[in-house]
Design goal:
By secondary structure, the protein is an alpha+beta fold. It has 27 helices and 18 strands. About 45% of the residues lie in helices and about 10% in strands.
Amino acid sequence: MATLIGGGKSALDVHLNGTIGTFRVSSEDGKSAGVEVRYLLTHVTLSEKQGQAQLLSMLAPVREVFDLKQLGFDEIMQRDIDDARVSLELIPYLLDTSTSGLIKLFPPIVAVALPLKPNSRVPDSNYRKVERTRIDSPEHKGIKDDRITAGFVGEEQFEFFQHYRNDAPLAEGARLSLARDNCTLAIVDGQHRAMALLALYRNLTGGWSDARRSPYEGYYKVWPEKEIRSYNLSELQLPVLICAFPQLDGTLTQDIDVVRAARRVFLTLNKTAKKVSDSRNKLLNDQDIVAECLRATLSYIKALDAKDNTGLRIWNVELDQEGDRVKIVSDAAFSGVSHLYHLTEQLLMNGQARGIEARGKVGAPRKRLDEAFDRLGLKDELTLDQRMVNTRTNYSDEIAEVFRRKWTDLYVPIVDRVLGKLHPYAAFARATISLNQELVSKRDAELEKMLFDGQATSRTFDDFREGLNRRVQDKEPNWTTPEIKETLARVNGLMASRKATVEAMKATRALFMLDAMTGPAKRQVIADGVVAKPVRDAIDRLFSDVFSTVAFQTAVVCTYAEAIQIAFGGVQHSTPELLDEYIEAVNGLLRPKNITDLKALLHTFEGELVVEPEVRLTAGGPTFRHVVLPGELQPAEWPKYRYLLLELWKPSAPELRTVVDEDKARARSAVAQSLYRRRLVTYCQDNRIDEASLTTEVKVEILAKVKSMYEDFLSAISGRKTGLDKSLFELSAPVAEATADDSAEDEQAA
């Protein structure tokens, strides 16, 4: 043990003076109490006072404290740092000596002392055993020395020390001691203002050499040491509050650990600060059973590596989508938190989709878990009381663990297989792996971080370039020097390199999309390793407007899972063979093997492809968007993609085939009637007449055109001529209802 090897020498090597406080809420009878939070309020400065250098070296944002590849998904709990804002706005504000900066006030930086596993930078669930002692002070008569220490001598993680007189704490002499080898300080609030100070400190001390820090150095080179030292740095002090949870040493009966406690502090503080994105709120929410299952999915994806038979990686999922948007902006991602949350919510909380009707939310979200208990096969595993008491937003840790386990066992394999083996996603994933390996071999850490760390660094880089360029163009004081202009030139060069790199990745992605085509077929659309521009542009649009949407991804997962549930009474009856059969059926359209297949794919979503005498694509015609989904795309419209998948899927299992065929017939009728209604409405609007004025001859003519259009669409996706009975188009609702689809909000502008 360390106590024997170290001869009883303490591991505590950072000592901070300040004011110690505690926060804990209890009921009047004392039976109900929250977890104790004990904190030290002190300050951090760039002066050379004792302990400041150690504190500055220990204090860091999560992205630097931990190697994210070694962490479980639950530990990724921090928002991205907007380095552009820190460098171009916060540092100037800190250093501003003009009259506009006469009054400055910063709330405290809040950091949590996180325990580390032995010989590791990975956070531990609990502190080492916490001892509380209060003994007579050997130095001060009538005073007692109070210590709260995590860990035995030589293995300590933290220690709060305070003098007491007559059971009352004294402010004088209070301190917090930390062990840098056993504990780390993770910033949970104020990381941007903290980063401003840390960046100045590192520029003064050459503190960017660490591999976890160096990719961000470029944002702060605009602040040279000479300029920083021109200010009185001893007067630059920021308050910092360092907190710990002494009860969380494994002895508390409540189901909570240090990392989860830190996340709750983070969410509470940031919900009233600068708005956290909708996706990050979903990701970190500890009071939503759907979010529990979402994190289980992401934890599984994050653990995938070279030994797994899939190209899917965590960088293929955008973790922090901007604001409330659901459109993917990360160049390496084809899915996102909003996508996985939506399909998880559908599978757990909502009734199964039938037909093509949009599945929009009506009223308040469901809180009862009846559907979820059924989908996860928990009705017999849980007692009636457990099922009645626990709800979506109020559930025990025991129920959360059961949900995560069942979700991981039953649904994560389906999500993993679909996102890993459906051809467009497999092609995209392979292209990003190829690019990642290329950047690693080139040791291009800056681009690698920007494209693959999943923390929106591309957006930050764009903001930094724009802000720097504006200051140079406006000739702001101290922003037109040769070195600043050179920095801007370097940034512009990096942006051009990123664009070229992403373009090369997309070109590779297009080649992978067509990798199943035979040699002669490939030569008609690929020349010298380059996909013909009309086909390449169409493939890019398919990824942007179809494959990477919430609606399509919800449909491609839920179509299979819900059909299995209906056919066999539970998704536990899914088998790898049934799932592979489904994926192979969908890939029949999405993975072209010849020119005919490629024409069918593009006919379904884009228009008519011609390859001779030259490759040309004519947009429009009987495509999916003209036949099935005429309105604007939003997540609620996913059942319309589900209908397309039902047309492709021909299950061999009789029970499954019955479910698919019955719902396909129901959906076909709905599509036919909706298409006929829309065409009648359009005709009436174009000719400025009402429905009552339509003659039988006109209706017959319109129906014939609609029927031909729908048959062309079905023939394209099935690869064989398909005929439809006229009775399928018989209207069961007024013509005016055809305008209902047009009120939807576009998913891409959400």
